[in-house]
Amino acid sequence: MKTLFTLAAIASALLLTSPAHAQDAAAWPNKPVRIIVPFAAGGSTDIVARKVAQRMGQLTSQPFIVENKPGAGGTLGAAYARAQPADGYSLFLGTVSTQSVAPFLYKTLPYDPLKDFRGLAMIASVPNVVVVNKALKTQDLKELVAAAKNKPGGLTYGSSGLGSSNHLATEALRASLAIPVTHVPYRGSGPALTDTMAGHVDFMLDVAMTSLPYIQRGDLNAVAVTSKQRLQVLPDVPTVAEQGFPEFEALGWFGLFAPAQTSNELAEKIAQLVHQVVLEKEMTAYFEAQGATASGVTLKGFDDIVAADRIHWGKVAQLAQIQPE
């Protein structure tokens, strides 16, 4: 009898809470929404967040406010985001770094990428560009290898931080090229790019979105792209694969997440909005001009991509012989 009573109580609770979830979803958003970005302002993740937030705000007549929480390769921001209420008003702009790569670079994480978040929608995917300080005078990977072997102690490279996707991608490239390098982590791609141009580090792998203007102005030399195909916006820059490493590929992505306890009704409503925004003609054209590809994959489809990427980057970490720190 006690078991039956307990089951009946649970069933009653579910019946009471389900309409509340539906009401919450129907009213969303009726106040400002935060999008937590785990990297510094000015980097690619911040740029994507602000572009999408602006359009979401226009469509809903509510402000979507970007809140930067940089540090530790994005893991500080991710841990902060997971602790927020699951009410749809604190969302997380996650990346391949925070959701798929970090488990292979840190012995302990203050969050579980798969259990603490639910994927809402993938916004866009983008390859990296190998950009080099002009003083190094390298035009391709062959010359980069020669420069690394000729410089005492090897080359230095910047990244968005320990645990970021460009950190792991650069380590994979190092393993492929068999060159000596020293990692210099930053709190985002913006400051890392600035120091690469200034010559404080020799090179870095950066997503095309943020490195493109500097390449086009001649502030940095682009020696390779990490996708299997060349970018339309950088047609003269060969891929890593073309330069003798046919298996090499490193793609990043950006996506919107919510705390795992977010209701299905609310998750579906937010996912539909992001899907609409990302696949608008103007938005897809914007991403294409930045060297990225709009996605719009939502919910379980997005969760499946995150899980599959975690397997992929685990293999990359093993290949590069990276030990978690």
UniProtKB/TrEMBL annotation:
Residues 1-22 form the signal peptide. Keywords: Signal. It comes from the Bacteria. The keyword Signal applies. InterPro entries: BUG (IPR005064), Bug_dom1 (IPR042100). The keyword Signal applies. It holds the Pfam family TctC. Belongs to the UPF0065 (bug) family. This is Tripartite tricarboxylate transporter substrate binding protein. It comes from Achromobacter seleniivolatilans.
